[in-house]
Structure formats: structure tokens, C-alpha cells
Amino acid sequence: MAIAKIAPSMLSSDFANLASEAERMLRLGADWLHMDIMGLLFGDAEEECLLTWHFVPNLTIGAPVIQSLRKHTKAYLDCHLMVTNPLDYVEPFGKAGASGFTFHIEVTRDNWQELIKSIKSKGMRPGVSLRPGTPVEDVFPLVEAENPVELVLVMTVEPGFGGQKFMPEMMDKVRTLREKYPSLDIEVDGGLGPSTIDAAASAGANCIVAGSSIFGAADPGEVISVLRKSVVESQNKN
Ligand SMILES: O=C(CO)[C@H](O)[C@H](O)COP(=O)(O)O
């Protein structure tokens, strides 16, 4: 069975106090720390993303920040790279101390095999993510490969910003993945919190990324525990 992992999205933390925010989340029960690595610009259309050499309309953090944070924590740093050229970042993120390296299928159609190999060679766990408009079938070959990804991240908002509305229609992708791959780590990201977790957990997600619902709560530890309880209870039912 895939183990429940609750991963606060550090995108919603106070970046000026990243180390203490990380320590606070771990103390409150977080399993992983989710790090959103965003390149520049945008484009709904994949062609536009490639032409402009950017992936989402925001800029966040890079390998130097991961390296700094690594000096303060031994935690699993679950890095989600929203960039158009992930291969360029494998070496720097490996050196910086990233634990997981999740790239996007939309920009790696031609080189995912090389990418997975390279991620593993740097001691990181490879994952693949898909935007809401990308069919789930696109990631099957990466899970079934001889050298496979170990996590699939189903985006439940259009990547780029925290605080957006959860897209319940993405749960069909999660259900399909869970039926096909019983022990795969299936992660969901975007709009997760106490009011949406049951949908994700019952569909079969076991890794839960949540930013604003945790950092914006009066009692973030209680939110972490509600998220975990929902995943564990759903798993026990099945
Ligand atoms: O990847 C992301 C945005 O691209 C964030 O991790 C995600 O949106 C989490 O934030 P929130 O829980 O506030 O929706």
C-alpha cells in the first residue's frame, strides 16, 4: 500500500523565514516539504510554452535556496520543477540536496528516459507531473518503463500559483492511476484542504500537497492531521 505523505507547499510559507517554517511544519506532523520551482512565463498552449522557453507565470526558488534549506533540515524535499528544461536542473538540484525531482510530461516527451536515468544517478527520486489539460494516459509509459518514475503528480489546479480552486474533475485521473498501479505514489497538488481531501483520498491519492489551507489555518497541525486521517481511512476501506 502507498504510504500517506502530507507535504505542505512551502510556496505559502514566509520565504524570509524558510528554515523555521520548515521546522514548524515538520514539528506539526508534515512528512515531506513540497518545494515549487517555477520558471518564467506562461502559455496555455504547449507550443507557446516552448517558444517562450518558460512554463508558468511566476518565479519562485531555485537550487541555491534548496541548498540553503538543506543545511537546516534532513527532511524529504519534494521538488516540483515547473520549468521547460528540467534536464538542465538535475545536477544543480542533486548537488543542492533535493530528495524528489518531479518534472512535467508536457515538456519532456522526447527525453524522459534520459531524464529519469539522470535524476536517479544523482540520488533523487524521479516523479512526473501533468497539467489539468494533459491526458493521464500520457504518463503510463513512464510508470511502466524499465527505469520508471516513482511518483505521479496530478495537478488539481493550473500550475503557477497557490490559493486556487481544486478541480474535482481531475479525480478521474487519480482513480485510473490507482486502479492500474496499486502501490504507486500518487500525489495531488492544488486547492487541497479539509473540504476537498475526501475526494482526493477516496480516488486513491496518498501524497497530499497543501499550501494555503495549512499555512492559512489557525491550527495548521490540525489541518495536517485531518488530511492524513482522510487518506488513511480511505485506504482502510479498500
Ligand atoms: O504547485 C503549486 C502551484 O503551481 C502549489 O503547490 C499549489 O497550488 C499548492 O497551493 P494551494 O494548496 O494553496 O493550492
Helicity, as a percent range: 25-40%
- CATH fold call: TIM Barrel
**Neighbour order of strands in the largest sheet:** 1-8-7-6-5-4-3-2
Quickly give the structural class.
alpha/beta
**Helix-strand pattern, N to C?**
EHEHHEHEHEHEHEHEHH
Structure summary, number of beta strands: 8
Radius of gyration: 16 Å
Oligomer: single chain
Structural account:
There is one protein chain. This protein has 10 helices and 8 strands. The chain has 238 residues and is an alpha/beta fold. It has one domain: Aldolase class I (TIM Barrel). It has an 8-stranded parallel β-sheet. Helix 3 runs parallel beside helix 4. The protein starts with a strand and ends with a helix. Bound molecules: ribulose-5-phosphate. The site of ribulose-5-phosphate (5RP) has 22 residues, from strand 2, strand 8 and helix 9. This is Ribulose-phosphate 3-epimerase. Keywords: Carbohydrate metabolism, Cobalt, Isomerase, Manganese, Metal-binding, Zinc. InterPro entries: Aldolase_TIM (IPR013785), Ribul_P_3_epim (IPR026019), Ribul_P_3_epim-like (IPR000056), RibuloseP-bd_barrel (IPR011060).
